[in-house]
Amino acid sequence: MADNAPRLTVLGSATPFPSADNACSGYLLSAGDTHVWMDAGTGTLAALQRHIAFEQVDAIWISHLHADHTADLLTAFYAALYSGIRLPAPIPLYGPPGIAERLAHFLTNSARRSPVEAAFEVHELHDGHQARIGPLELTSAEVAHGMPAFAVRIEDKGADGGGVLVYSGDTAPCASLVALAAGCDVLLCEADSSTVTAGEPRVHHTPEEAGETARRAAAHRLVVTHVGPGMTPQEAVSRAGTSYGGPVEHAAPGSSFALRRVVTG
């Protein structure tokens, strides 16, 4: 029997810069012929093309404007307008307020503003923002990262149905993420912080906190990503498991996860 579940492919999960074998944050969510590129960190455009052609991207969703989540939007702009690719229309780009001007600031090399909107149909996110891309329904929620930042819940509303992914983006533990992730099949949650430093603003999860967020949300599967340089992925998985009773995996580059419920016991 064919597996028709939407599939998450990890393009990269490194932070704060790419390694020789791991791009920065970026993910491809595919449901049939629908493809959403989530976060566009350094190196992810190259990794994307191992799976689909650039012109097959139906939409791009960006969690926040830090470079390790957005840098490849600059090269995507050139791909869209100057590579010989013929897109039927600008690619829908969902991102935090100000994303178009941020791109234009980097891309403009003269007195004339770069034509960002010729490459991207820009939609600014807000808390509770919803969008429909093919069979996929995207709901965004503002999270705690010390700047405008969003998590997203993606539900498969197609005829075959099933499959709910929640991606945290970058965030400290917060009630809005727990609420967004309620009952999801896969929670893709960052685990950047190795330790918590008293008195410093919180902007990331520790692995234990990622596990606690998954437990509180009753998520059926946890995939830790954006693991900081102070620990190995294996350590992050083990630590997350101490506060979460379900299966935990790491978002290794090139790995792929079907959005279906994992039955245990």
Written overview of the protein:
It is a single chain. This protein is of the alpha/beta class and 265 residues long. It has eight helices and 15 strands. The protein has helices spanning 44-48, 67-70, 72-82, 99-107, 116-119, 175-180, 207-217, 233-241, and strands at residues 7-14, 23-24, 26-31, 34-40, 59-61, 91-95, 120-124, 130-133, 136-142, 150-156, 164-167, 186-190, 222-225, 248-250, 256-258. The strands form two sheets. Strands 1, 2, 3, 4, 5, 6, 7 and 15 form an eight-stranded mixed beta sheet that branches. A seven-stranded mixed beta sheet has the order 8-9-10-11-12-13-14. Helix 7 (207-217) crosses helix 8 (233-241). The relative contact order is 0.15. The model has no long low-confidence stretch (mean pLDDT 93).
Question: In short, what is this structure?
Answer:
The protein is an alpha/beta fold and 265 residues long. Helices cover 22% and strands 28% of the residues.
Residue share in helix: 10-25%
Integer-rounded radius of gyration: 18 Å
Order of helices and strands: EEEEHEHHEHHEEEEEHEHEHEE
Low-confidence stretches: none
Choose one word for the global shape: globular
Largest sheet: 8 strands, mixed
What share of residues are in beta strands? 25-35%
Structural class: alpha/beta
How far is it from the N-terminal to the C-terminal residue, by CA?
Answer: 23 Å
Q: Number of helical runs?
A: 8
Compute the average pLDDT: 93
The total strand number stands at 15
